[in-house]
Specification:
By secondary structure, this protein is α/β, with parallel strands linked by helices. The chain has a single domain, classed as TIM Barrel, CATH 3.20.20.210. It contains twelve helices and eleven strands. It has a seven-stranded parallel beta sheet with strand order 1-6-7-8-9-10-11. Strands 2-3-4-5 form a four-stranded antiparallel beta sheet. β7, α8 and β8 form a beta-alpha-beta unit. α7 runs parallel beside α8 and α11 packs across α12. The longest helix is centred in the middle third of the chain and has 26 residues. The radius of gyration is 20 Å and the shape is globular. The relative contact order is 0.14.
Length: 325
């Protein structure tokens, strides 16, 4: 174990990273941040042991995490995008005690951490309700109705964010949109720009107005729309995956890159050795750490490979501690 002692907090170190200055150490995401989201608007347990979100989508637990139950049952909450109003939550956000909710979230934040707050999703919610196939078809067949639906979902999450923010004041606010695979976008860049981007722009304008750092959680190869992300004010990508030229966007545009770990490599397999796991962490840090504006994150580690996560966390702390010294 390194003898170097952390003289500042994780939050203070992250402030240096965000400013583009050289931090005391290379931060690891789950040490530097408390990942939080809405409590009463999240997925709540139901009688059959599954969970259900406020839009009526039921989720089941698998070895790799929760997935919508409709992927198995084929019983979708929304089958005609033109009837999207029927599935909007019937909830009065004014009835929620937002100060109490913020206090509960803060009680789970470790001293010296920043809060990384997940404030909702629009495309994500649409494919939860319809399935990927029908959601993609809706973009093509009913672009106006799809835009109206996404816009209404965005208004709901923006309203909730505005209500909790004064009490919680998270440093980063993130929307989660799985728009891509390792090969590229699920839809054409034009479909994104015409239908989804205007909605995202409104969501991030709210984040910027409130004073938080605007962050997008998105997986896969997203370079086709990175200029659009930069244009609408996104300042952090989490997880910024290795399919993209991470250093280009980090160095040229000042994007805060969170990720860089190869979730498909030898460091994340059922038979991964300890040295292979540790090497995967060092490779990520050596590749993206120089120049700063980088936070290591092991997004994509499979819960099924229980030996992987603890080794990653240990190596990230050991190797990151003296990285800039």
């Amino acid at each position: 174990m390194s003898a170097f002692k952390k003289e500042i907090t994780e939050k203070e170190n992250m402030q240096l990273v965000i400013k583009g200055e050289t931090p005391a150490w290379l931060p690891s995401f789950f040490d530097a941040f408390a990942w939080a989201g809405f409590l009463k608007l999240g997925r709540l347990p139901i009688a059959n042991g599954n969970t259900k979100d406020i839009f009526g989508v039921e989720f089941i637990m698998t070895a790799d995490g929760q997935i919508p139950y409709n992927t198995v049952s084929r019983n979708f909450e929304l089958t005609d995008i033109r009837k999207w109003r029927d599935i909007m939550p019937d909830i009065d956000l004014a009835t929620i005690n937002w100060e109490e909710e913020a206090n509960i979230i803060r009680s789970n934040v470790k001293d010296g951490q920043m809060i990384n707050f997940l404030a909702g999703f629009v495309w994500e919610q649409l494919h939860y309700m319809m399935g990927f196939e029908d959601a993609l078809l809706a973009l093509i067949e009913e672009p106006e109705a799809t835009y109206e639906c996404l816009n209404a979902i965005a208004d709901f999450w923006i309203d909730a964010l505005r209500r909790i923010y004064p009490y919680l004041k998270p440093e980063l606010v993130m929307f989660m949109e799985h728009l891509a695979t390792a090969r590229g976008l699920l839809m054409s860049p034009e479909a994104y720009r015409n239908i989804i981007k205007p909605v995202h722009k409104k969501m991030y304008e709210a984040v910027i107005e409130l004073g938080a750092l605007p962050e997008m959680h998105v997986d896969g190869y997203i370079e086709d729309i990175m200029p659009d992300y930069i244009e609408i004010g996104i300042k952090a990508i989490q997880p910024f995956q290795i399919f993209n030229d991470v250093n280009h966007y980090k160095n040229k545009y000042g994007i805060l890159a969170v990720g860089g770990w190869d979730a498909f490599g030898r460091g994340n397999q059922a038979d991964s050795t300890e040295e292979e796991i540790r090497a995967s962490v060092r490779l990520a840090m050596d590749t993206y750490g120089p120049g700063g504006r980088y936070v290591f994150s092991e997004n994509g580690v499979s819960p099924a490979f229980k030996h992987v996560g603890p080794v990653i966390s240990d190596e990230a702390r050991r190797y990151g501690l003296n990285f800039y010294r």
